[in-house]
Specification:
mainly alpha, 2 strands, 2% strand, transmembrane helix, transmembrane
Amino acid sequence: MTEMVFGTAPARAGDPILPRWWRTIDKWSLACVLGLFAMGLLLGLAASVPLAEKNNLPRFYYVERQAAFGGLALLVMLVFSMMSPRQVRRLGVLGFAGAFLLILALPIIGTDHGKGAVRWLSIGGTSLQPSEFLKPGFVALCAWFMAASQEVGGPPGKFYSFIATTVIVVLLALQPDFGQASLVLFAWLVMYFVAGAPMVLLMGVAGLAGLGGFFAYGASDHFARRINGFLSSEIDPRTQIGYATNAIQEGGFFGVGVGEGTVKWSLPDAHTDFIIAVAAEEYGLIMVLAIIALYCTIVVRSLLRLLKERDPFARIAGTGLACSFGVQALINMGVAVRLLPAKGMTLPFVSYGGSSVIASAVAMGALLALTRTRPQGEMAEILRRGR
């Protein structure tokens, strides 16, 4: 607790791995992740029971599965958080290559689970969404390219990252998965900005993305339906957005009471995409604000620690991971309150889903590794040496 209040001490040479890890890790961010996971299990006890009964399964079947996935995810996060930036980069690039190959295979062996988008692979009775695992690998790859371009005589890494981003965005849009495509593009824009891109170029790319959305509206019925539903002046109360909006209004400040909510019986995705509606109805605005505070704490603390980082890869990749983590949560909650069109995006560490929680753990473990306090890792030390 003393270190959580007064700061983390830098690592000392010769320390054992675990004491060094504990001394250098951002304990506040780690505690917030554990808090989000605990809230996910709490909400899963309410949100997943109706689905289990509908599928003739034990009442807490999905909660038990989420707990098992979560235990594995926390182990993965801890392992990644002990790595060096070089190890994060290497595993990230390898992970990107594997996820990229799986995405290429989706049109052949993928499934849509009746949702109109081929995003999943069915493996041994469970499903895997490759795009969830692609995101942290993509951030590591582009950060590597951008950091290499800053070296004297380095390759045109920023251009390489642009090509990689274009390919990934197109592949995701063809599934179609415009939500993940937008998140990937946002992560690249943030990293490019940190790497020193001119604002005019970033604005140009954003304009091209808007133009692409205009053409997607005319070419994809799936995309057009979601945009039309969002722009409609009236909400159909029989749609998921209608149920979620009503649940949030009914919850008020303190909620209707634990187990007293009704939206979980109407929403087919109450345990995944719209779990924040369950939280708002049963626990009220207080629970929602607590969840938002946990996400904000992780993002803000990570960015503040990265301001002191002198390793270009760690700074660029950490910023991409932190911002994409926060924006994914923002998109999920924004959809539930109808501030954004429906995206089909999970709430990290809170929504049910093996792919989601494990991929989030990989990204968060990498972020915790990149924000650890390392010897000679702060710009202040470099400035003092130059005097």
